[in-house]
Amino acid sequence: MGAYSVRGERAQMSVMGLTQDFGHPVLVDLPRIALTKTVPPAVRKFAVQRPELMKFLDGAAARRVILFRAPAGYGKTIIAAEWSQRLREAGSLVAWLSLDSDDNEPGAFAYHLARAFESAATNLGREAIELLQASNLIPARNVISSLLNAVAETDCETYLFLDDFHVVSDARCHELMKMLVRYAPSTLHLVLISRTEPRFSLSRLRLEDELVEIDVPLLKFKPQEICDFLGDALCHRLGKAGIAKLHATTEGWPAALQLSRIALTNSADPVAHVRTISGTSRTISEYFEDTLATEPEEVVDFLLKTSILEQMNGSLCSAVAGTSEEAAILEALEREQFLLVPLDESGNWYRYHNLLREFLLDRLRTRMGDQLQDLHRRACRWYAARQMWSEAVHYAIAAGDYPLALEFIENCAMSMVARGDLLTLLSWEQQLPKELMSGQLEVKLALAWGMSLVTRFKEAEVLLTQVEAGTHAALGSDLWWRCRAARAVFCALTEDSARGRDIALECLAGYKFDAFNFNALCNVVRYAYLKSGDWKAFYAVPNPDPSAGEASYVLPENYRLCLYGLAAVKQLRFDEAFDFYAVAQSLAEKYAGAKSVSASMLTALIARLEYERGDVTGAEVRVLDALELIETTAFHEGFRNAFFVLVRAAAVRGDYTRAMSLLNRAERLSWERGWGVVVAMLLVERTRLLLANGNVSEALALMPAFDELHAKHAADLGASIRTWRLVAKGLIDAASENLEDAAAALSEAFSGLLSTDDRFIALRVGIDLAVLYDRLGFLAKSHALLKKLMAWGAEANMPSFVLDHERRIVPILLKARDAAVFDGDDLAIRFVNGLLLQLRERLQAMRKSAAARPPDELTARERTIVEFIARGRSNKEIARELGVAPETIKTHLKRIFQKLSAESRAQAVVRAQSLGMLKTGAAQAAL
C-alpha cells in the first residue's frame, strides 16, 4: 500500500484500521488519491453516437443495479462515461470510481467509495470521511452505512459507477457490495462495469426486476453504427457491401473496428483491405499477442490447442488439450469474458470469436505444427465416442485418417441426408481417395441420395446402378429395399413420376421401412397424385408418424410440406401455401441452415407466390440471392418457379436480352437433366417473348422442339408436354391471325389443365383465351370466362396473371365491367378495380423510371459486369471472360455498388435493370 501515508507498528495494515487485526490505535493521515480515480474518462468530442444504446440505458436508469459485462475492447467504460455525463446533465448526482488492484481490500475499498461520493457532492461523503479521520478502528461496514444514510437524506437520484469491477476479488469487499445493494435507498443506483459477473449473487435482483445487464449483444456495433464510427467519407468508399463484410469479420467487436479503422482510412482500396482483415492482421495480432502475454503458460497452451475446435465444451477441451484442468480453464475464460461466444442457453458450448480463433490457429501452426494431426485425431475420437459422426468425420479428414473417416461416414451419411445436410456429405466424397470407395455400398447409396437431391442425376444413376448390382445376390435384403426406395425417389426427381409411383407402391407393400424411407416413398406417391390432381388420393397418403422423431426424417418432411404447398397453389389457396412453405423453411433452417439445399428450394417456391401477388422486385431479389444454389441443387418444381420469376421480372421491365439469356441457361440445364415438362414450360415462355417482340417465324420454329420432347417422354409426360405445346400453338396462331385455330388450341389446353384441377396455370391460359374470344367477337364466351377467372384470381389475390398482359387487357376488363359481368360478386369487383388501378400506376411508374437515372451512370464495362452477374456468373468466371484479374472485377463491383446504392449482387442487378441500364447488350457482345 505504498500510496498511503500510514504511521504505526505494522506496515501491512489496511487504511484506517478498517479490518480487525491492528494492535494499538495510532494517528493516521488520510491518504490522498489520484483525481482520475473519481472522475469518469472524458467523452471524446467526436465519439460515435449510439442513440439506441443510450435510449436503452435511459430506460434502465430506475433499476437498482446496472451491470455492464463484456470482454475487453467492447467499449464498456466509454459508453458508461457517456451515460454518466447524460445523467449529470439531467440533474442526477454521479459518483465514479475507477478500481485497480489497490482496491482489492475492504479498507481501501470503503475509503475510496467515500471519496467517490464526496466527488459527486461534498455532503454525500463528508460524514464517512470525518469518521475515518476521527478513528482508525472504524469498521468498513460503518463507512458503508454512513454513505447509505447520506444518500438517503438527499432528494437527488444518485448513481455510483464502479469501473473495472472485475479486479475486486476479495470476499470481504464483496460483502460490502452486498450490503450496498441490499440496503440501498430507492434513489441509489449502482453501475458496475466489469469483464465478469460479480461474485455476489444477483438472482434476487433479477427476480425483482431490479437488474439490467448490458452485455456483448448490446455492445456490439451494428452495421449502421459501424458506418457512424468510420465516418461518412470512409463509409462511402466502403459502400454497404464493404460495411457488411467488416461487420461479419469483426462480429461488431469495437476493439477490432478501432484497430482496423486507421488502416482502412489510409488504404487506397478499403474494400479490398476489408477482405484481408483477419486475426493475423498486424494490428489485431499485436493486440492478441499483448493479451496472451499476461496469461499463464497453461492458459496459452489451452487456447492454442483448442483453437482447432469450431465449438467446444469442457469435456472436449480436456480431450484435445490432454489434461484434466481444461474444464476449469474454460470456465475461468468464460467468467472473464475472454472473447468466447456462447452457443447455447445452458452455457455448455462455446466458440472463440472468429478473429481470435484465426490468430490462435496461426500461432498453433507456427509453434506446434507437428501436433496438429494428433489434436485433430483427439477431437475425432471424442466425437466418435459420443456417436456425433458428422463432426468425427470432419476431424478424421483433418487428421488425414481417410479409412477412419470413411468408417464414420457410413455411420452418419443417411442421417445427414435425412436432415438435408447434402452439400457437406458430397464435399466429403470429393476429399476421399477414390480407391477407398470400392465396395462401400452403404456409402454409395447415401451419396446416390445426395446426388439425386442436388440434381446430379448422371452421377446418381451410376451410383444407384452399382448398388443395385452389388445387392443383386441379396434380393429382398434391407439394403436392396432401401436401394429400391432411392430409385423411386430418383424417378420422381427426374420427372418420371408414374414409374416412381409404381416402385414406391411396390416398396410400401413389400417392406417395413424406417421413418426416413417410408416418408420419402409416401412423397413419391403423393407427388404422382399431385400431378394428376387426384386430391382424394393425395390427401389420403399417410403423413409422418411424430413418434419417430422429427430429426429422423427432416428432408422428407420438408418435401411433404412443399408438396402440400404446391397442391394448395394449384387450387389457388395461396395463404395456405405460404403457411406450408413457412413451416418448411423454418424446418430447413433449423436442421440444415439458411443456405442449404432444402432452404433454397423453399426460396424459389415462396418467390413465385410473391411474384403472383404483385411483388415483382421482391421476388426477383429473393431468387437472385440464392440463384447459384437453386440453379445447381433445386428439384424441378423449385427450378422452374425460380426461372419463371426471373424471366417474367425481366419481361416486365422490357429487358428482352436478359430474359432470353435466362431462358437459354434454364433450357440447357433442363435438357441436361431430362426435365421434359420444365423444358416445355420454358419454351412457352420463349414463345411469349418472341411474339411480344414480333418474331412470329422464330416462335414457329420452336414447334419441332415440342415434338421432340413429346416423342422422348410420350409414355410418362406426354399429356403435360402436349398441353404446353397446345399453349404455344395457340399463341402462335393468334399472332398469325389464325384466330379460330388459336381458340381451339388454347381451349383444349385450358380444359386439359382443369382436368388435373390446375387452376393456377389455367388462369394464365384462360386470360389468353378470354382475350382471343374478345378478338373473335365472342363476347359472351369472353365475359363468361372472365367472370370465372376474376373470381379465381380474387380468391387467390393473384393479380399477376392480368398485370402481365398490361395494356391489351385493360379495354377488355373495362368492357366487361361496364357490361356488369362481375355484378353480384363483390370480391371480384374489388379485384378488377384494383387491377385496373395497378395497371395505370405501373404505366406511370414505367414512364418515370424511363426518365430517371442515378447521378453516376454505369460505364460500358460496368454494365457488362452487371449483365454477367445477372446470368449467375462468379467473379472468377467474369474475369476469365473479360481477360482481367478477379481483383479487378472486385474493384469494379465496389464502384457498381456505390453507384447503384446496392447491398448485394442481386440488388445491383435489379437496380440496374429497373433504371434501364442493361438494354445495350454489352454482355452479349462480350460473350
Keywords for this structure?
single chain; 927 residues; mainly alpha; Rossmann fold; Arc Repressor Mutant, subunit A; five-stranded parallel sheet; two-stranded antiparallel ribbon; 49 helices; 67% helix; globular; disordered N terminus; disordered C terminus
Summarize the model shown.
The chain has 927 residues and is mainly α.
Report on the architecture of this protein.
The chain has 927 residues and is mainly α. Among the domains are: 15-219, P-loop containing nucleotide triphosphate hydrolases (Rossmann fold, 3-Layer(aba) Sandwich); 223-277, no CATH class; 287-386, Arc Repressor Mutant, subunit A (Orthogonal Bundle), CATH 1.10.10; 549-642, no CATH class; 860-926, Winged helix-like DNA-binding domain superfamily/Winged helix DNA-binding domain (Arc Repressor Mutant, subunit A). Helices cover 67% and strands 4% of the residues. The chain is built from 49 helices and 7 strands. The strands form 2 sheets. A 5-stranded parallel β-sheet has the order 2-3-4-1-5. Strand 6 and strand 7 (350-352) form a beta hairpin. Helix 31 packs antiparallel against helix 48 (905-914) and helix 38 (714-735) runs antiparallel to helix 39 (739-755). The chain is globular, with a radius of gyration of 35 Å. The protein starts with 50 loop residues before the first helix and ends with a helix. Mean pLDDT is 84; it is low at 1-28 and 919-927.
* Sequence of strands across the biggest β-sheet: 2-3-4-1-5
The level of helicity is 55-70%
Q: How much strand? A: under 5%
Uncertain stretches of 5 or more adjacent residues: 1-28, 919-927
What is the number of E strands?
7
| Largest sheet, strands/sense/barrel | 5 strands, parallel
CATH architectural grouping of the domain at 15-219? 3-Layer(aba) Sandwich
User: What's the overall geometry?
Assistant: globular
Give the CATH class of the domain at 15-219.
Alpha Beta
What's the end-to-end separation, in Å? 79 Å
Indicate the mean pLDDT: 84
What's the CATH topology name of the domain at 15-219? Answer: Rossmann fold
Alpha-beta classification: mainly alpha
Q: CATH-wise, what's the superfamily of the domain at 15-219?
A: P-loop containing nucleotide triphosphate hydrolases
**Rounded radius of gyration (Å):** 35 Å
Number of helices: 49
